[in-house]
């Protein structure tokens, strides 16, 4: 039940956020999830979508919504730990971030 409430809260928060339009996105912004990102992450669209929602609701609490191209998985793991994310959320978030990094290569 706690996960359901957390998921619904995340969905509500994400849906109320203002998103960048495609023309406003730059090389470091957080693009909305796509099949291309999911494929690049060797994942599925549902997983990267959950990762994107976590990114939008958690990561902006500490810094801008930018995804660095040169961030290691160890550094992402450290930030996940600082944010207090559960392992499942960390996995989904990392899938999204890795997918975004790979499509930029």
Shape: globular
Strand content: under 5%
- Strand and helix order: HHHHH
The count of β-strands is 0
Radius of gyration: 13 Å
Number of domains: 1
Q: Sheet bearing the most strands, described?
A: none
Total of DSSP H or I helical runs spanning 4+ residues:
5
Which structural class is indicated by helix and strand composition? mainly alpha
Share of helical residues: 55-70%
Low-confidence stretches: 8-27
Mean pLDDT: 76
Cα end-to-end separation = 40 Å
What keywords describe this structure?
105 residues; mainly alpha; 0% strand; globular; heme binding; Cytochrome c domain-containing protein; Cyt_c-like_dom_sf
Report on this model:
The chain is mainly alpha-helical. It has one domain. 61% of the residues lie in helices and 0% in strands. The protein is built from 5 helices and no strands. The chain has helices at residues 2-16, 35-40, 45-58, 73-83, 87-104. Helix 1 packs across helix 3 (45-58) and helix 3 packs across helix 5. The protein is globular.
Secondary-structure topology with pairs:
Elements lengths: L1 H15 L18 H6 L4 H14 L14 H11 L3 H18 L1
Helix pairs in contact: 1-3, 3-5
Organism: Persicirhabdus sediminis
GO molecular function: electron transfer activity; heme binding
Protein name: Cytochrome c domain-containing protein
């Amino acid at each position: 039940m706690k996960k359901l409430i957390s998921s619904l809260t995340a969905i509500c928060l994400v849906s109320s956020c203002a998103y960048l339009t495609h023309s406003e996105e730059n090389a470091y912004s957080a693009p909305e999830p796509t099949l291309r990102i999911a494929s690049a992450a060797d994942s599925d669209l549902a997983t990267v979508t959950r990762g994107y929602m976590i990114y939008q609701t958690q990561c902006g609490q500490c810094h801008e919504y930018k995804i660095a191209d040169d961030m290691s998985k160890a550094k992402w793991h450290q930030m996940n730990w600082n944010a207090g994310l559960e392992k499942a959320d960390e996995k989904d978030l990392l899938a999204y971030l890795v997918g975004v990094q790979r499509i930029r290569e």
